[in-house]
Amino acid sequence: MTERPPHHGPDGRFRIPWPLEVADQRSGGSIFRWQWERMRNRRAPNPPPEQVPVVPHAVAMPRAGDEIRVTWVGHASFLVQAGGLNLLTDPHWSRRASPSQRIGPARFQEPGIPFDELPPVDAVLLSHDHYDHLDRATVERLRDRFGAGLRWITPLAYRAWFGDLGVTNVTELDWWGETKIGEIAVTCAPAQHWTRRRLKEMNDRLWASYALRLADGRGIYFGGDSGYFRGYEEIGRRLGPFDVVMLPIGAYDPRWFMAPAHMNPEEAVRAYRELGGRGAFVAMHWGTFRLTDEDPLEPPVRTRAAWADARLSERDLHILRHGETLVVEG
Ligand code: ZN
Ligand code: ZN
Known about the structure:
A hairpin with a 2-residue loop joins strand 2 and strand 3 (about 85-90). About 20% of the residues lie in helices and about 20% in strands. It has one domain (about 55-330): Metallo-beta-lactamase, Chain A (4-Layer Sandwich). It is α/β, with parallel strands linked by helices. The strands form two sheets. It has a seven-stranded mixed sheet with strand order 6-5-4-3-2-1-14, with no helix packed on it. The longest helix is centred in the N-terminal third of the chain and has 13 residues, at about 30-40. It binds zinc ion (2 copies). The site of one zinc ion has 5 residues, from loops.
């Protein structure tokens, strides 16, 4: 008999094995208090596009050589060119991170790579089902462009959702589960977060981060969405070290509500160290959609300060602009 993984509760839903129960923070009362505070407190305005500019990308066509190329499309979407493959993370090319394209958070500017300029994509890594990470229209565009056989790597319980869109090449992984994309070993790793797309769903699907190991030994980590948690040390120990670490630095205020599910810049720098980051820190999850209450331009400022406080090398910190490509030579 196989044992239930620790993150399945008795009701079959996913639970976090760490002390914080994020789901408890999502009660109606908490959401009401957050929205009430939002109405009373004046917030910084949305940044004009020139403050979060799109710059020309340096995507290798059709594929990179020995170098690793990471291009920020925006939010949690990257094109990762490594190991002779082109991978996307949490791809989002739509105007809004929302169930409706009429209301909901709209992007501050265009995606860093125009959709039509994408090179052939070999596989997509998905961290979880929130609308700023899993965008139905983008899934359909990728299906239409690259075929229904385009491979998706997801945490547990996504196959049916993709199947409804005619996307069938889905590899579901539990935490610590492994698969291969070409020569790249992919391990699904924990994160401290939650999932929900519809009102009645709550943690019906798993959330995750991913660790990639190239054939030449280099490591890449994609953090997805996560609060700071003690799992980073374990991920570093089991799957590190990492030459490229993509971590979220935005969507953290107010702390009383967001801390379990979204780390702040100081925590992101701490996570990088605990993961065994030995190269590039690549910032994500800021400057694209306004989801929470902090000034949208604050995350990079605080990240740079936390980086300096930790006496880490300035050349390893990469707060990319939209479309900017980081090149890590092989
Ligand atoms: Zn999320
Ligand atoms: Zn998110």
